[in-house]
């Protein structure tokens, strides 16, 4: 579990995050959502440790990232997996070499052990047989799956995903969402996803933190979001006519069930 308490972050005198507190649960897909400029990227970077807030606490299973020693931070980072927006694969390395990269950097495993672990991770993301291909030889969706395999290679306790569906078609996006959710549950990972994809919100939003202009405006799940009366949230999530229609349908069904009771 990751908890943030009263986190405030500013740049050049302008406050980007205003006293934010939230809990990100283990074994669940935790989403951070909000418009561009809402502070969600700054919040994720602060949680990971790429930015340092002026005040507050960032607790990894009770240990405050802002207070622990350099050696403890190094140990913590070996427990973190990252899935970057553009996959960030090394073009000059094959698929299996990309997955093996963190194993070579952060472990003392033998070559045979690294290959075995990488093959296991690739099999887990349904990429068996793609070992010797280069990133340029596979599709965007396959590249994302390679990136997920690399992110879980070190068997992380914490997984951060920055816009994992960026640049993908809707069908592939759903497959990536479901894969991240399944891996989160299977390995009991604390997963935090920074996204603006409403399909992800509705599909895998088990714990959603909504930011608006640097303030935490709402927390809930993908069922509660339909009955929320938070105006900023509704303006953001239900901007399209399609999602407006879905909300009306859900509310109608909810009222119908209530009357039956």
TrEMBL record:
Say if the entry is tagged with keyword Ion transport: no
Q: By its UniProt entry, which CDD domains does this protein fall under?
A: ABC_Org_Solvent_Resistant
Top-rank taxon, per record: Bacteria
A GO molecular function term, named singly, is:
ATP binding
- Residue ranges annotated for the ABC transporter domain, each copy included: 2-238
Entry annotated with the keyword Transport:
yes
Entry keyword set: ATP-binding, Nucleotide-binding, Transport
Q: What is this protein called?
A: Phospholipid/cholesterol/gamma-HCH transport system ATP-binding protein
Q: Which organism is it from?
A: Coprobacter fastidiosus NSB1 = JCM 33896
